[in-house]
Amino acid sequence: MRNRIGFFGGCFNPVTNAHLQLIEKVLEKEKLERVYFVPMGDLYAKKELISLSHRIKMLELAFGNQDKMQILNISNTNQKTSAIDTFQIIDEKFSEAERFFIMGSDNFEKIKTWKNAEELTQKYQYIVLDREKGDMKHISSTLVREKIKQGKNVEDLIPKQVLEYIEQMKLYK
Fold first, then answer.
1. Number of neighbours of residue 35 by Cβ within 10 angstroms
2. Contact of 126 with 102, CB cutoff 8 Å
3. What's the domain range around 143?
4. Structure pTM?
5. What CATH number should be reported for the domain holding residue 134?
6. 49 phi/psi in degrees, rounded to 5
7. Which of 34, 79, 102, 132 is the most buried (most CB within 10 A)?
8. Ordered DSSP codes for 42-97
C-alpha cells in the first residue's frame, strides 16, 4: 500500500489554531501518514501578505518537529506559481505516494476558474474542508490580523509560540 500524504496549500498569514485542528482531524479521519503545509509565495496577490520567510517561521513554531505535520516550500520567489504548477511539482517529488490536496470548500468552489481547471478537477484527489463545521469556524487569519492591529488579545486563536514571534517581529501592526 502506498503512503497517503496530504498537501494543504494556503497563505498561513498567520497560521491559526483552526488550521492545526482541522489538519489533526484530517490526519486521523483520512488515515494520512503526514500533511505538508504548502505556503503561497510572496507574489500571491493577497492583501496584507507578509513575507514567506515569516510565514514559514510561524509554521515551524506552530508544530515544531512533529512528524505528521511538515512544511513544503516550493514557492518560486521570482514568479507567481499557479495551482497546476504546484500540483505538478508535488507529483514529481512524491510520485510514490497517494496524494491528496486539502482545501477549504470556499476555494474548491473557485477551482473551476483556475488555470488548467479541467486537469485540476480530473487528475487530482481532494479532501475538502467545510469551514462552517467544527468549533473553530470563527477563527481566520484575517480575524487574527485585525485583532492584532486593534491591540486585542489573540491568545486563544493562534499557538503561543506564533504569538510570541509576531510580537517580537512586530508583524501585522
1. 24
2. yes
3. 4-169
4. 0.91
5. 3.40.50.620
6. -75, 120
7. 102
8. TTS--TTPPPHHHHHHHHHHHHTT-SSEEE-----TTS---HHHHHHHHHHHTTTS
Q: Supply the Cα-derived Rg of the chain in whole angstroms.
A: 16
Give backbone dihedrals phi and psi of 6, rounded to 5 degrees, phi first: -105, 150
Predicted confidence (pLDDT) per residue in 104-120, tens digit: 888 888 899 988 989 88
Q: Which residues neighbour 120 within 8 Å (Cβ) at sequence distance 6 or greater?
A: 83, 84, 87, 111, 114
Q: How many domains does the chain have?
A: 1
Q: Which residue has the higher pLDDT, 165 or 76?
A: 165
Average pLDDT over residues 167-173: 95
Report yes or no: 32 and 5 within 8 Å, Cβ to Cβ.
yes
Kindly report the backbone phi and psi dihedral angles of residue 103, in degrees, each rounded to the nearest multiple of 5, phi listed first.
Answer: -155, 160
